[in-house]
Amino acid sequence: MKAGVTVDFVPPPGERLVGAVADHDDQAVEAALRPKDLSEFVGQERVREQLDLVLKAARQRGATADHILLSGAPGLGKTTLSMIIAAEMGAPIRITSGPAIQHAGDLAAILSSLTEGEVLFLDEIHRMSRPAEEMLYMAMEDFRVDVIVGKGPGATAIPLELPPFTLVGATTRAGLLPPPLRDRFGFTGHMEFYAPAELERVVRRSAGLLDVAVDDDGAAEIAGRSRGTPRIANRLLRRVRDYAQVKADGRITRETAAQALEVYEVDARGLDRLDRAVLTALLKLFGGGPVGLSTLAVAVGEERETVEEVAEPFLVREGLLARTPRGRIATPAAWEHLGMVPPQVAGGAGGIGQGGPGQRSLFAE
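Structure tokens predicted for Holliday junction branch migration complex subunit RuvB:
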């Protein structure tokens, strides 16, 4: 490098580090970082304890485990747990997803090729087609399916016996599952968001597997910005590792982690550019609300669905934004987080967006 010339460290374009949905890079890295048994799995203490009892009892009986439903937000470890279930039962695992099964024949082909005791992991099970869903009822309960041959009056149903298997369904929206399907699962586990201390353990474990030097403060800094999600913690760890390798001595300290995540526009509370844009528009342009979702989306230059499904859930969970019948409003915590002071309603009765008497919004839909 020539004297007097500096090169800025620039993050890859278009990457949302705090998105909980896995991309191709995440899938490759997660395969290497996934724990192999329940004892290595960090967090989800209640689900782990309950699942351990279910699997041990099945092994003692010499039977396949009951069908298992895992629900929770993306990135909390549902796929990892499904692989651990197969490993604990000493069985192979078949992985597919709801959107990939659009016809009953697709499901019949998968079920008919299963071996005894095999684990079938069905991700996003709530997005499976209705005909396939109805076929799954009989397969789960009676271990058989009826294959329809022919059409019209001459159609014939041929029963096909299936070997005992364990279905592990994963969903981010358990409420969309019809009751007949939900009731056929013998065990349902709900995955909770992780506490910062649990995420610190995740970061330290992943750093060891990636051969990255990280001190306790550095791990705490990454964990605090990971939105309660291990997948995001691992992604932030990889980006901080890159920064430490290029701009520092390769060791991740609190200062290095903070500097790296400032480059990637992830603040101390885990908000990224989109999150802050939504809050800033809500506060500066609309005085804290209430404001309609479509109006807010136009103000930040994003689609309505992007604001509603990508930004809002975390902002609501953090208590920075509230959904009301009149529209979206900012909470006092939002004003405080962005270092702004809410305007006063006439007469000094609270700030705009804080529910002052008789307050109405010109922007509500």
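Strands lie at 68-71, 93-97, 119-123, 144-149, 156-161, 166-171, 187-190, 321-324, 327-330.
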